[in-house]
Amino acid sequence: MGTSAEPHSLVLGLLFLSMPAMGSCSDKYPELLGQLQKQADFMQHTNTLLDLYIRSQGLDKNGLKEHCRERPGAFPSKDALQRLSRRVFLRTLDTTLGQVLLRLAALEQDIPKAQDLEMLSGVKLNIRGFKNNIHCMAQLLPGSSETTEPTPTSPGASPSPTPTLDTFQRRLEGCRFLHGYHRFMRSVGQVFREWGKSLSRSRRHSPHQGLLKGARRMQLSGRNKRLMPRVQLAPGSHRGAPGG
Amino acid sequence: DLSHQTWYRNNSVHFYIFSCSFSGELLDPCGYIKPESPIVQLGSNFTAVCVLKEKCMDYFHVNANYIFWKTNHVTIPKEQYTIINKTASSVTFTDISLLNIQLTCNIRTFGQIDQNVYGIRIISGLPPEKPTNLSCINLFLMTDSSIFVFRATEKFADCKTKRDTPTSCTVDYSPVYFVNIEVWVEAENALGKVTSDHINFDPVDKVKPSPPHNLSVSNSEELSSILKLTWINSSIQGFIGLKYNIQYRTRDASTWSQIPPEDTASTRYSFTVQDLKPFTEYVFRIRCMKEDGKGFWSDWSEEASGITYEDRPSKAPSFWYKIEPSHTHGYRSVQLIWKTLPPFEANGKILDYEVTLTRWKSRLQNYTVNDTKWTVNITNDRYIATLTARNLVGKSNAAVLTIPAYDFQGNLAESKCYLITVTPVYADGPGSTESIKAYLKQAPPSKGPTVRTKKVGKNEAVLEWDQLPVDVQNGFIRNYTIFYRTIIGNETAVNVDSSHTEYTLSSLTSDTLYMVRMAAYTDEGGKDGPEFTFTTPKFAQGEIEAIVVPVCLAFLLTTLLGVLFCFNKRDLIKKHIWPNVPDPSKSHIAQWSPHTPPRHNFNSKDQMYSDGNFTDVSVVEIEAANDKKPFPEDLKSLDLFKKEKISTEGHSSGIGGSSCMSSSRPSISSSDENESAQNTSGTVQYSTVVHSGYRHQVPSVQVFSRSESTQPLLDSEERPEDLQLVDNIDSSVGNLPRQQYFKQNCSQHETSPDISHFERSKQVSSVNEEDFVRLKQQISDISQPYGSGQMKMFQEISVADAFGPRTEGQVERFETVGMEAAIDEGMPKSYLPQTVRRGGYMPQ
Lengths: 244, 844
Description:
The complex is a heterodimer of chains A (244) and B (844).
Chain A: H1 5-18, H2 29-43, H3 50-56, H4 78-83, H5 86-107, H6 114-140, H7 167-203, H8 209-220
Chain B: E1 2-8, E2 31-34, E3 39-41, E4 46-52, H1 54-60, E5 67-71, E6 74-75, E7 81-83, E8 88-93, E9 100-109, E10 113-125, E11 137-141, E12 168-173, E13 181-183, E14 186-189, E15 192-195, E16 199-201, E17 207-208, E18 213-219, E19 227-232, E20 242-250, E21 257-258, E22 270-273, E23 281-290, E24 304-307, E25 319-325, E26 331-338, H2 343-346, E27 352-359, E28 364-369, E29 373-379, E30 383-390, E31 399-403, E32 417-422, E33 425-426, E34 429-430, E35 434-439, E36 451-456, E37 461-465, H3 470-473, E38 479-486, E39 492-497, E40 502-505, E41 513-522, E42 525-528, E43 532-535, H4 543-568, H5 570-576, E44 588-591, E45 620-622, H6 632-647, H7 673-676, E46 686-688, H8 715-718, H9 720-732, E47 756-758, H10 769-782, H11 799-802, H12 808-811, H13 819-826
Parallel strand pairs in B: 3-10, 11-17
Antiparallel strand pairs in B: 1-11, 1-12, 2-4, 4-8, 5-6, 5-9, 7-8, 9-10, 13-16, 14-15, 18-19, 19-22, 20-21, 20-23, 23-24, 25-26, 26-29, 27-28, 27-30, 30-31, 32-35, 33-34, 36-37, 37-40, 38-39, 38-41, 41-42, 41-43, 44-46, 45-47
């Protein structure tokens, strides 16, 4: 798990700027926000991933499931997410999901069944799709070219547990990780819903007020600027790949 | 769940034209053609070159001049040839229009033998057209599949079309919903490459869901008209809401009925279909699509059928009987036969039938029968049989049949109506019955119809009657005839069809007595009914109202206008019809001074009238100084007053003024209390005649006239103290409205009662110039003894000011207070004051 903000921020800066323009993003903020909400709502359900993992690892027997609880600090809490500015929130989300992808790649080794692997592949594709929407949403936010915003750390989202763990501990750790992942997605969905409420409120006043408000929050929350090195990369110079 | 993604083009285009060259090879070719496998665009120019080999040229003793070209075995004109050099000759085609050309290079050897040197096939065509009508469908199937996406951040592998489906391509990727993807098609052939427009969409909006599965149908014992469908939705419902089409039909029907779509517009797992027939098998199918209508309908589900629950039979079975003689004396064998109910009437499986037999005045007997016929021995009496069908739910209504007595014989009578019913009896039961009425012989009715009026109008009358009872008809009533006449007129006859029971007589005379009767006719004759009389009214309904109401309205309107006119012109009317008559009881003589007739002394007390009848009041207060001349501004004010009186004739210019005690409180009067207190003996002989209106009516004017006479007028003139008393009473009663009066300084009552007061009636058209001059002169005289500023003139004084509280001492000066009311209301009118002032008041 990353413990310093700088590597993640650097990676995110690279990520957002280096996303190759494969296709154009939708410029419809409400539509994109709706897609993000629905994705988050869908991905929070444990039957999309955790249940599969528990079943495939045999953790659904003998009360082992009771030990599958989120490890505190593995994922940002809901309160922490709500405190972030929109831009930082998106970066945090993108970073965390990148780490989840890496972790899923590691978990694949423990899944023997081809059918389960296929399902896991679908989950990974969904996460990539979610990251795609995050990228598009970041472009819609005011000041999208700014790259100096720091990203808070994702305390416990390390790509893989320490290698010294035995198989059982590793499986249990994977289960806890996925438990946290679903809880995290639920929190993300709630944050996006708040964005939606803010949008509906701002629509009553001006169409872009919600965005501007988000931008103001972003400006105010740059207390860790020193942690974020200024990165000026030409778009497309790097193929985005979340680091961890 | 995985998905397939397919796109296609609807029009046929040159999608791929793959070249396939053909070269006419010789074992030892004498030369070759360049280019060897040309693909040429239609309409363009093309040049081919044939090059001979040296070895061949030497062998055949030929060169390029010997070359000739053929296309599809036809020699090309030499005009198209070009000899390039000794070994090479070219041919040029302009505007190639054929898609496939076989081109050969030939030489003529030995002057007569044509040899083919080389051959090629020219393929011509067009570059690919831009693929259009690009569409995507996301097949949400229960198979392993994947999706072909281009998103903002990732590019997925291309999908290659297959030769047999060149306008569609299916890619296999897992579906990613709620992410926009971008799709386009690239078409390429030897002549070029084109790209379609890009389409951008969320795959969730292109979903064609798999149909609902495990559709099952169940019925309800409580309701025989419903069936409940249940199904399992496609797993896509985890992502999107669904709406449905549900269709159903009976098993033997070919057309489907559909549940209203608005009833199935959201995700659900079951649906109850209503209004179905009982005990009927229905077939159902269902399909779904995205709730908002985006995407595609799924295929129809597999059909499922169900049978509605039973209901009680809706109809009784038809039945008949056969009578056979019995071996037992006094009995007969009766066989009851009936038909099975059709399914739509049976509403279920008929379990058995229940037969009841009832003999005349005997109790009912029940029998349960499982067959459709039943034989029973009964007596020769008359019986009534009933039959009901029973199923699981209940029994049908009963069919009733009368089995006549055995000794029934047909003694048919004349003039009697008989109902003849014929029921065919088939092998499987009775058929439908037919009935007819018949008479053995008809006769005229024994009684005529009784006619009466239903409604009588001014010129018409509606007659009505009852059908004759069957017993008196004696035949078929063919028609009716209505006869009507007046007392003096001829009788008129009207024929009416027998089906009618009502007829309207028109063109009647109003206010006339009519006599009407009616006859009914059979084929054998008619019979008159009783005569009926009625009288047409003089006026039609509403006619009287139509006359009276406008007249009343006109009268009311006229009256109203008259009242309004009188109200508006009341002054004029009052002036001409009941002019104001002075009330002698209100007469006053303020002062009488025969010695100084020209001088006018205005005593305010003289102008105080207790009856409050004066509405328009002008008030002038003049405080004169005896020993001083009036200030010019005072005289000017008087002039103004005069002018104002002239110009504002008929209008009130002020409010009844203050009493003598008003000097003790603030007043709008400009009178200076101190100065007025010195108002003394500037007496003016003056008499007033005051009237209070005719018969207690409010006088429109107050007449104030100056008396020129030196002769004493009335007792009151002789008794000034009485006059003074009235003044004091007036002053003490504060219920007067506006009054015109003169204000007098009370401190000068005893000694100087003459205070300059002047009032003017509304009806006095103008101030007498002479009077005014006198007035001014008098004021001048009066003002002499007083200092300047003691004479004031005021006009507007409020009632409150005028009749405000008085000092106690002043009230005590009167023996009676409120006498005014007694004088005005109860006491006979008198010219003399009825209250004697203590201390008296002596005119000077």
